[in-house]
Specification:
Layout lengths: L1 H18 L3 E6 L3 H14 L3 E7 L7 H13 L2 E6 L1 H8 L5 H22 L3 E5 L4 H13 L20 E3 L7 H10 L4 H4 L19 H20 L9 H4 L2 E15 L2 E14 L7 E2 L4 H14 L3 E6 L13
Parallel strand pairs: 1-2, 1-4, 2-3, 4-5, 7-9
Antiparallel strand pairs: 6-7, 7-8
The chain binds xanthosine-5'-monophosphate.
Xanthosine-5'-monophosphate binds next to loops.
């Protein structure tokens, strides 16, 4: 529509003016925000943009391939794919505090960017998909001092020695506006209406210490949950339960409980399912998913993911709980 068309024209002009002939690098995470930022900046400056897609080993199932197909193959965006799984896992070993994990993941990201930006001649800007609610939450955190809510790694200053200026073209937009913008820029509907995914990824969905083994189990459980949400249609609205929820995912609990399988006793891990409905992600209700859907997801996870023998559903609202478990 013309309003979004005008917005894009204005944003494109402003990005071109800001950046001039400089090169820009952008960290593509697979989430909606960085994807829309990449599409917008690519529209403005084309080949002056290089995306750096860091696989920290904490992404969802098949996410790497999906991101590379969409941006590199379909849109012709320059994307450098870095597999930094071992580096991240090494740094996270033995660390169980949520904020400490976020700080490590954020720090590793910056380090990978420094290395990659060093390879891109004339890189002067680091673009990020920071949106308005991120800005608000960070401001609130500053005022509260020690009572930090969460350190979103994609908000805030960069180390002095990085020598890159921040380009954040989505800073004034709410989530629904970012999605509209993505559609107007030609991104696929399924991608743009994908649930948001936090920068630290599965790192904050594996409670306590992060291990590759846990990430592998969680990825498979999460993919089953998402698949069932997408394929289960609510009769009243005609929409899928994926579209009826704002965010849904599985959480790995490093707790073992007893179960039975055949004539054997099992002693395996627990997965919690989280699904919420919200407008602004500042407050949220737990989603009243149909019991048969929950039952199907539980059966499939327990039958298909060896190592998980119990599935629970989170019925906590925000506040007092947060959407993520860490
Ligand atoms: P909470 O858990 O605070 O989450 O209710 C609100 C929204 O923010 C996302 N989230 C993050 N996003 N880095 C991010 O980029 C983070 O560290 C982070 N922590 C939470 C969360 O997924 C939800 O959409």
């Amino acid at each position: 529509d013309w309003v979004m068309g005008d917005y894009i024209a204005e944003a494109v002009a402003s990005i071109r003016k800001q950046v001039g002939s400089d090169e820009v690098i952008l960290g593509l995470s697979g989430g909606v925000d960085s994807s829309v930022a990449a599409a917008l900046i690519h529209r403005a400056i084309g080949a002056q943009l290089t995306c750096v897609f860091v696989d920290h080993g904490l992404l969802r199932l098949n996410e790497g391939k999906m991101v590379m197909d969409m941006f590199a193959k379909n849109l012709g965006v320059k994307v450098i794919h870095v597999d930094a799984t071992n580096q991240f896992m090494g740094e996270l070993a033995g660390v169980s505090d949520p904020e400490a994990k976020r700080k490590i993941i954020g720090k590793e990201f910056v380090e990978v960017f420094q290395v990659e930006s060093g390879k891109i001649k004339n890189a002067k800007w680091l673009a990020q998909g920071t949106i308005y609610p991120d800005v608000i939450e960070s401001a609130g955190k500053g005022k509260k001092g020690a009572h930090t809510i969460k350190s979103h790694h994609n908000v805030g200053g960069l180390p002095e020695d990085m020598k890159l200026q921040l380009l954040e073209p989505l800073r004034e937009l709410f989530k629904d506006e970012v999605r509209e913008l993505g559609v107007a820029l030609g991104l696929p509907h399924e991608m743009v209406y994908r649930h948001p995914f936090p920068g630290p990824g599965l790192g904050v969905r594996i409670l306590g210490e992060v291990k590759k083994e846990f990430a592998d189990l969680l990825r498979r459980a999460d993919a089953i949950f998402i698949e069932e949400l997408r394929s289960t249609i609510d009769e009243n609205s005609g929409k899928s339960w994926y579209d009826l929820t704002s965010q849904a995912f599985a959480v790995f609990l490093p707790v073992k409980s007893v179960g039975v399988m055949g004539d054997g006793r099992t002693y395996e891990y627990v997965v919690a399912l989280r699904a919420v409905q919200t407008q602004d992600f500042m407050t949220a209700h737990w989603a009243h998913l149909p019991h048969d859907l929950l039952g199907r997801v539980s059966n499939r996870i327990i039958n298909e993911v060896r190592g998980i023998n119990r599935v629970v559903y989170d019925i906590s609202g925000k506040p007092p709980a947060t959407i993520e478990w860490e």
